[in-house]
Amino acid sequence: QVQLVESGGGLVQAGGSLRLSCAASGGTFILGAMAWFRQAPGKEREFVTTIRWSGGITYYAESVKGRFTISRDNAKNTVTLQMNSLKPEDTAVYYCAGDRGYNGHSYYSPLRYSYWGQGTQVTVSS
Length: 126
Known about the structure:
- The protein is built from no helices and 11 strands.
- By secondary structure, the protein is mainly β.
- The N and C termini lie far apart (40 Å).
- The model has no long low-confidence stretch (mean pLDDT 94).
- 0% of the residues lie in helices and 51% in strands.
- The strands form 2 sheets. Strands 2, 4, 5, 6, 9, 10 and 11 form a 7-stranded mixed sheet that branches.
């Protein structure tokens, strides 16, 4: 069973940076892509970014494009989210997710992803 564990959340002032990591274990060979989602209080879980293990193709939500960067380390089965120029509206619980390939849902839909981490809190103060 694939397990995903996030780390690196915390409190930062607006304009600052944070780096989140997601370590995957247990049958990671079945994963096609990894993604980050976030969920703010009272809001639905929203797509942030995704990267394919093979080829490294990436997609970003418009709200984070140019500020966030996703990367992967295939040898360590780790995905990293570098977040720069953080804004108060980036405050949310950030979740790492993994898929097993296309299942009829788009990469920006939570329904595409079979595996989820426990989440890590990111708080950006103004």
